[in-house]
Give the backbone structure.
Amino acid sequence: MTILTDSPFHKPQLQLDDRLKKRAVEKILTKLCLTHENICKIREVFESEMRLGLARNSYRPSSLQMENTFIPKLPDGTENGDFLALDLGGTNFRVILLSLRPGQEGDFLVKYYSVPEHLRMGPGEQLFDFLASCIYHFLESNELLGNYYPLGFTFSFPMIQKALDVGILLTWTKSFNCSGVVGQDAVKMLNDAIARKGNMNVDVVAVLNDTTGTLVKGAYTDPDTAIGLILGTGSNACYLERIDRIEKWDKPGVTEVIIDIEWGAFGDNGVLDFIKTDFDRAVDCNSLLVHSFTFEKLFAGKYMGELVRHILIKLCREGLLFGGAPSETLLTFGSFTTADVSGIEGDNDDGENTRKILRRLGFAYPYTDDMLIVRHVCAVVTVRGARVVATCLSSLLDRMVKPEVTIAVDGSLFKHHPKFQRLMNDFIGDMLPEQKFKLMLAEDGSGKGAGLVAAVALKLREDSKKLIAKDNL
Ligand code: GLC
């Protein structure tokens, strides 16, 4: 089936009667509208960065980490037992109890704890002590304190994994920047904090990324799942790679492994500079970790609203929007969010949402042209985001050569943006007309997935014990 991605849905058109103004706005937005050549080049550099990231000796470092997750095996539905799962990555931390019974969906108990800014930015030990007290609170309030639980820890930051239960933090991202954690093993820090808190019979058996949790959760319900994708505050993907294509590690006895790409940092070495706009640079300059996470900052939830805000300011300053006078609110960092982009993108013909959002920004009586321009900017930024994600996903699908692939997706951008999913779907379909694929919401991938990975970890431990016992016979 050929999908026409030339429609206004895929190529937003600005409908203004004032032709001069229309042209002036379009000129400012030109670089955000990717050309066919841009897309081909993104695909090319993504593929070469992946190859470099997997190579044993590369002539230069890749911006794609291509990290080993040490998960060579997906759950097969025979998992049995109760597992604790932790999910840390956004401003909410979750503790989850997952009860798995063969052939059943599994029961799920969850509690959310908000992580205040002083803990996200303070000394690391305090953050881990907080996590341990949340686990304690969860167990105590559910009258589970005496029980033993294996625990899977979703720690959604770039790690160097040395084993399934060893994850060295490479750098913080998103809204975290605690001291004393970079270069340390997050599992050890968590275990130490659990020991300091005392009275808990909990064993951290696995540490994983949220994309991995999402892939594993997806595979539990749909065995064709081979890619895990997060479109949330940040963005990243992982996929099942054939071991013979990974030069950098020797892994005898294993045929496949999940690779955490860490594509948020794609382009940090300059390979994406050809699509970067002044607006992207402005978003980067105002972010917590400047000059990093180039790809993620093009569209992820933490940044998309900011990107639109910078474009609106520029249009204002050029006298093309809001009578040339930006409001104090518009000039304030964070005043326009990705949820606002979603609200505007999902607006009805009367423009109710757009009007409400503009009123909040200090524009109580916007002209029709203003409304049209704001809606157009949101559409252009959305399309660019969906395009770049779809381009990288197409590369992955192509690389895997599987007849049918399900892409398990989680994250607020995917769930709440009214157009992102359809756009991605259409763009991939356009690039790979022969490939069968499906984008599937794997809700709570990072939570339930961590419980499932803990179950897989236990199975792997049992398998290796059996092997050792056999060798000793
Ligand atoms: C950031 C993190 C990555 C995570 C992603 C989505 O890019 O570096 O590990 O998967 O956010 O949460």
